[in-house]
Amino acid sequence: MSFKPEIGIISSLKNDASNIDTVAAFGLHCAQVVSWNPALATMEIARTLRKRAADANVRLTAIWGGYGGPVQWNFRYGPATLGIVPPGFRWIRIKELCNWADFAAEAGAPALITHCGFLPENRTDAEFEPIVEAVRKIADHCKELGIGFWFETGQETPVALLRVIEATGCDNLGINLDPANLIMYGKGNPIDALDVFGRYVRCIHAKDGTPPTSGDYLGHEVRVGEGSTRYPEFIKKLLDGGFTGDLIIEREISGEQQAIDIRKTIDYLQTLLPDVG
To answer: With CB atoms 3.0 to 4.6 Å apart as the test, which of 31, 84, 111, 262 could cross-link to 62 if both were Cys?
Structure first.
């Protein structure tokens, strides 16, 4: 293990890009910028973000683009509301994600990331090919801009995600692996998942969680090291497999405790990373 990933954080986009100040306040120099407001995907805000990040010596690892319409993070309504899987929301969300791709390219980020939704397990599902075509439209647009299109893990099993990547056939597809999501959705073990799609992993959400104990609701997100990911083993296998991306801390709470947990996570992750001279 001769590579040491850089640690960064999730940063929620503001229209003046002042969110970058929070990244610098933690003493970090990379961030994944996220927004669920498609109205912020303007070239003016993208240029503001690019300048503010450069001035603060913060590298943008990717833009995480959300979409309009209903979104429910559970098993009861999630399949009908998340991502580009629901046919009723698919085409408007393709457009919104392509706009985020334009934003990412203008901001100087190397990739667009999103949740594509509950990808079908069965290749003979009537929606499989339309979903693949939707992914291809976004990926092709990203390629024209010179950036990648990365899936965030969560709603699908690792092999279902691999199947869509292979069926789409675009060479700029990648994975933003959120190990906590695999556990919280009950979709897989993130350590074993590296055997399935490890070659496509471009970035990590450093997050942790517990398995679901209800058929309708996800497991719980917790501070890194307190959940079921088994981080020492996960990081070792990730680096042994040739990972060369970033570890982006995500703590889905707010306020003072979020800042405390982020700082503790930075310290914890440092203990798991190799010393590289």
So the answer is: 111
- How many angstroms separate the CA atoms of 248 and 128, rounded? 31
Q: How far apart are CA 106 and CA 236, in angstroms?
A: 35
* CA-closest candidate to residue 61, choices 246, 201, 270, 235: 246
Q: Parallel, antiparallel, or unpaired: how do β-strands 59-65 and 111-114 relate?
A: parallel
pLDDT tens string 145-201: 999 999 999 999 999 999 999 999 999 999 999 999 999 999 999 999 999 999 999
